[in-house]
Fold each of these.
Amino acid sequence: MDSTVVNLKSKLEIYKAMTGGGNLADCPVRDVIQGLNGKWSSLLTAALAEQPYRFGELRRLVPDISQRMLTQTLHELQRDGYVHREVFPTKPPSVEYSLTDLGRSMFGALQHLLQWAELNHDAVREARKGFDTAQA
Amino acid sequence: MDSTVVNLKSKLEIYKAMTGGGNLADCPVRDVIQGLNGKWSSLLTAALAEQPYRFGELRRLVPDISQRMLTQTLHELQRDGYVHREVFPTKPPSVEYSLTDLGRSMFGALQHLLQWAELNHDAVREARKGFDTAQA
DNA sequence: GGGTGTCGGTCTCAAAAAGAGACCAGCACT
DNA sequence: AGTGCTGGTCTCTTTTTGAGACCGACACCC
């Protein structure tokens, strides 16, 4: 199927889905997106899409995340079913995090946005620069 | 191009792009994604992808956004080059917001994630329910 | 046996962000 | 003169995030 057709066909439907047909407070699409909106969610998902990692490995891999937010974000991702957490009875015990099937499926969709960002970050930077100088 | 091939080919590259090759603090991909991570960014982009809206129309369309966050989010989206803001000299003056070409391009990528959320929100809900009952 | 290190966290406190809602100027209409 | 609409801003409170100290359990070294 041609992707342009997909875009044109579903634009309105997506918007309707996000507004929940009048039931905004309980809209499932916004609810799901909300869980991915966190500052660290996409980065950690991208890391785990590459390969499973242990807690400490993730911490070293993303040095500017606090241990507190790493714990919390992984917990949320696990709760939403994207991430599997497995404890190995080593001494001291080690904990491995990996993507579930649902997580891999979700990352397949997220990936488009990440790729777009990679391709277009210079355009965004440019826009910001122009806007900021226009303001001053 | 087959989308499966795209996934397999770029998984590692995307992660590398997000970690910025060691230059995490200044990573452009994370920088761009960050601007889309706000609570209201994707919803407002989806609304404007449907059609241009005026400030008050958006406020009525999304009743649970505060006026403060609506102003602020639109300002950020404008700064990043996704949204065009036009003031019409009516009395009282009206302000119309619309997507730029860059904004439409970005929405094309974002759309995949929104569609995924629409298709899979029941799986996520299910995962949450299971997790919460397992915790208790 | 005492000191040190690793593991995956939790706890507390300060800073930043978001939400709620009052307030504003300018003009039209009545 | 009073009311309403426009698109905001200002202030205050609550929530979220960040920084960093602390924790138990065990291994390893001496």
Amino acid sequence: MSRLDTKQRILDAAEQLFARDGFHRTSLRAITSKAKVNLAAVNYHFGSKKALLEAVFERRLLPLNRTRKERLEEVLQNARKRGVRPEVRDIMRAFIEPTFRFRESEPGAQDFIKLIGRSIVTPDSTAKTVLLRFMKPILKTLSEALTEALPELPKDVLLWRLYFSIGALAHTMHLDKRFQFEPLNLKAETDVKSLTNMLITFVTAGMEAS
Amino acid sequence: MSRLDTKQRILDAAEQLFARDGFHRTSLRAITSKAKVNLAAVNYHFGSKKALLEAVFERRLLPLNRTRKERLEEVLQNARKRGVRPEVRDIMRAFIEPTFRFRESEPGAQDFIKLIGRSIVTPDSTAKTVLLRFMKPILKTLSEALTEALPELPKDVLLWRLYFSIGALAHTMHLDKRFQFEPLNLKAETDVKSLTNMLITFVTAGMEAS
DNA sequence: CTTTAATTCAAACAAATGTTTTAATTAAAC
DNA sequence: GTTTAATTAAAACATTTGTTTGAATTAAAG
């Protein structure tokens, strides 16, 4: 068993189980059983359960946020070239679309998106603390882009609206092929393109509300 | 120690700790320690940890949902009397405002609102399952009211927008005097009236987006 | 091939957890 | 006051959990 293989298998299993059951409710024995490795391998390769969580985040979030940042900068540059304000819709799309694209790229990515969504909205938890550390730079970039798009909007109102948007996005990330929001008969069968567009329409309208 | 006192103390402690740490991460020993009762009292009075959770929800959610339902029906009746469609804003206010009003009524209520917010957005967990059972009727009423307000909107789009709104509301429920969303420098010091209005404005615009 | 380093293995450790059990205490009924 | 019912208390049970330990195995280096 190669070193890279063991680590990958642990990361894959952890990603899946953290997403499904949360950080605290996922035991290391469940992860190692799923990964078919020995329990002590977690400590050997990652040091601790928390460090494993950080590794899970880092593996996927750095590239995802890089994509988001590139998309955002593209929107801003295009607007500056044309001497106009960036469009809120383009900004929100730049942030949201890579999320859904990424989710569709492979099964593990779907679990990861679920884990992010879950971690954003869980107060005071280890996962959230770790996640926000990774998210802080991109959220800063996002709020600055929105300030350019909506310069007359009071800063606190803008940030609150962004906060609501993040809540809506995070909530949407929970859905997958197996999960449905039963009270509203919502199923995740909706194709991802129209779901993305619906969400972008919703948050754009909310950001621009007068 | 009277019977009502013990039960209340357990419920109060459970409410607070479930909100802070979640259902699974809160041990019965933590609850009973906080409530200053014996561990076996939980089993004696409630039967199981899960039944305690249900009792926590039931205690607060039934009156809260009753208020919401009354408010919704009032909006609908007023509109029907005037022979017009109900306003989306009025509908969302009828659903959201009692939540914030309730949160401000006492410290325990704030914990409870946090617990709801937390439970709505946690996939596949005991708390969510229990909560949605209580929420199903009011969500049905809400979606019906919105259908009256937005009769031309395709039903699935309406339901998705409602789902996004619930995500935004749930995310907002996490904030309290101690908690802030650090990446955006958001603090819960914003007065509740303007926060309520900001959220209602946001989701109303999102629901009405064209 | 031998030596060193890396990795895996299995057991152990100390602590935590929900539920159950039995005895003791308290409260209510008469 | 006595009897019955309700409630609390403390211990036990069986299981689970993250971390650690030392030995065994495998891989890499020379």
